[in-house]
Amino acid sequence: MATDPNLRLVHPPPRQLRRAVPDQVLGVMIFILTEIMLFAGFISAFAIARSSNDAWPPPNQPLLPVQETALNTLALLLSGAVLSYAGRRFASDPRAALRPMIVSMLLGAFFVVFQGVEWVSLLSDGLGLTTSTHASFFYVIVGAHALHALGGLGVLVALVAWLRAGTLTADGFWAARLFWYFVVLLWPVLYWQVYLR
Q1: Which of 130, 157, 155, 140 is nearest to 58 (CA)?
Q2: What is the pLDDT along the chain (197 residues), one digit of tens a residue?
Q3: Domain containing residue 150
Q4: Does the residue 138 lie in any domain?
Q5: CATH number of the domain bearing residue 86
Q6: pTM to 2 decimals?
Q7: Could you tell me if residue 166 is inside a domain?
Q8: CA within 20 to 30 Å of 110's CA: 7, 100, 136, 156, which one?
Q9: Domain tally, the chain
Q10: Shortest CA distance to 87 belongs to which of 145, 26, 34, 25?
Q11: Is residue 3 assigned to a domain?
């Protein structure tokens, strides 16, 4: 079969694909969905244990510090709000986002430190991991959230460093904010379930 060397197939130029969600953001969204399932399992097991006991929390064990934790909760919620403000500032002038990012990071650190102080106080009062089913669930659920909060704080520290170095991208900032919003918005649910019910 003979071919003509001057004959060429003409294809339209490839279209530039525009992703609706950047890869970094999509990855964080998938991670958050798996974490929602994890915490939903914790809360479901906690609710089943609570409903199968006559006295909840069990008598003769230290009570959880509801008021102190309410203050910590407020600090964490403010951290999320300030980070949202930083996101709006970043869109118009990335350098203007630095101060609110630092404030958000400090409020998050306040939450983590004073939740740690709460744990030390509860442990010294005799509420240990094996004290009761209630105590076990408390440490597992709140401890899992604390690990996420510590990871989120590490991300916030990295964001500040990247912004100062001029290497923070809009997509990276968006992905990191999504994770921190997850940490922030999950906590009131846990606070209500573990401390107030």
Answers
A1: 130
A2: 555 566 565 666 677 777 788 899 999 999 999 999 999 999 999 999 999 988 888 888 999 999 999 999 999 999 999 999 999 999 999 999 999 999 999 999 999 999 999 999 999 999 999 999 999 999 999 999 999 999 999 999 999 999 999 999 999 999 999 999 999 999 999 999 999 98
A3: 23-50+66-196
A4: yes
A5: 1.20.120.80
A6: 0.88
A7: yes
A8: 136
A9: 1
A10: 25
A11: no
The answer to whether the CB of 80 falls within 8 A of the CB of 180 is yes
Find where tokens 């003509």 sit.
4
Token pair 């980070």 is at which residue?
A: 83
Q: Longest Cα pair distance anywhere in the chain, in angstroms?
A: 95
**Contacting residues for 146 by C-beta, under 8 A, at least 6 apart:** 112, 115, 116
Residue 171, judged by CB atoms within 10 A of its CB (0-12, 13-18, 19+), counts as: middle
Encoded amino acid at 27, one letter: G
C-alpha to C-alpha distance for 139 and 119, rounded to whole angstroms: 9
Residue 159 lies in a domain: yes
